[in-house]
Specification:
The chain is of the alpha/beta class. It has one domain: Rossmann fold, CATH 3.40.50.150. The chain contains eight helices and seven strands. It has a seven-stranded mixed sheet with strand order 3-2-1-4-5-7-6. α5 links the parallel β4 and β5.
């Protein structure tokens, strides 16, 4: 019997393979997915404005776990230039989707982010969206966080979006509370905003009427995710 633990990257591939390829719960035509996506987009826009980053044409951004490219498409709409965007994706099928969805000038790299060729202090923004909640190995989480921090320019930051509490129905993920985020980036200055109505509640209320998402989301205890800017000092 081989007791050698599998590399975390291989374990992540297996976890994602168990998920449905096209899950209606996350489809943009589903109000319970569309409303939180729009909420998060507005929150990111506000965060960028607060930085004074109105003209983004010279800013560089890399996303860890870019999936099919949806977040990078949002960044293009904000004003980032394609040649200044890069996505790192572990799964070949998702990387192929991103390559098909994004302009050719966007670099979409397949493979383990820890092996990616990214120059230190080369990025204004390093983005991760619900990646760390899929990493169940603490040491791997820390190595990835350390790599991301190296890539950030002084004056830039890590743009973080993830959920904070465990999902008892899904053993393939775990929440990443703010205390853990602070431990992963001990030298960063955190600005946080709690967002996203708990998905089970969002699905239930939007079946009645989509506008109920906004109403229930007024209650902070019902929000399960954090949008954070982790600033790197100049």
């Amino acid at each position: 019997m081989n007791d050698t633990p599998r590399p975390e990257a291989d374990a992540v591939r297996e976890r994602y393979a168990r998920r449905a390829a096209a899950d209606w719960r996350y489809h943009r035509l589903n109000p319970s997915a569309l409303w939180p996506a729009q909420e998060r987009e507005r929150a990111i826009a506000r965060l960028l404005r607060e930085r004074g980053w109105i003209d983004l044409t010279e800013r560089r951004l890399i996303e860890v776990g870019c999936g099919a490219g949806g977040n990078l498409i949002e960044m293009l709409r904000f004003g980032f230039l394609p040649q200044h965007l890069r996505g790192l994706e572990l799964l070949e099928a998702r990387q192929a989707q991103a390559r098909a969805n994004l302009p050719a000038a966007v670099d979409v790299t397949l493979g383990d982010a820890l092996q990616a060729d990214v120059a230190p202090a080369s990025q204004d923004v390093v983005l991760q969206s619900t990646v760390f909640s899929s990493l169940l190995d603490d040491a791997f989480q820390q190595r990835l966080a350390d790599a991301m921090w190296r890539w950030v320019k002084p004056g830039g930051g890590v743009l973080w979006y993830d959920f904070t509490i465990d999902n008892p129905r899904n053993p393939d993920v775990r929440g990443v509370p703010l205390e853990r985020v602070r431990a992963l980036f001990p030298h960063g200055a955190l600005q946080t905003r709690r967002v996203t109505l708990a998905p089970p509640i969002a699905r239930a209320v939007t079946r009645v009427h989509p506008a109920l998402y906004t109403l229930f989301n007024l209650l902070p205890p019902l929000r399960t995710h954090v949008l954070a800017w982790i600033a790197k000092p100049r």
